[in-house]
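Narrative summary of target 7.
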Amino acid sequence: MTPTAVRQADLVQDLYLKELKAYKSPPVKASDSQGQVHQFSMPKAPISPEETDIANDLKAYEDQVPEVEGQSAAGETSAVEPDWFEEPAEDEEEVKH
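Modeled conformation, tokenized:
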């Protein structure tokens, strides 16, 4: 006959399990997180530097007088610009050959 091991009581384990089963967690309240977490607030939207004075910029654009080539503005004298794309006159002798 083989001897069977007798289960010995583990007092520490039994005590731990007994306390674990008897534990009741405290109820959670909505105000428990105050003081532990910062309150979130949406940051204000940044303003675009291009949008600061659109109305005045648009008015200044509409008031501009367009510059047309060949016309001079009032009070300005236009200097004649040389035509850089003129072909030089060919000699008559070279043309006859």
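The mean pLDDT is 78.
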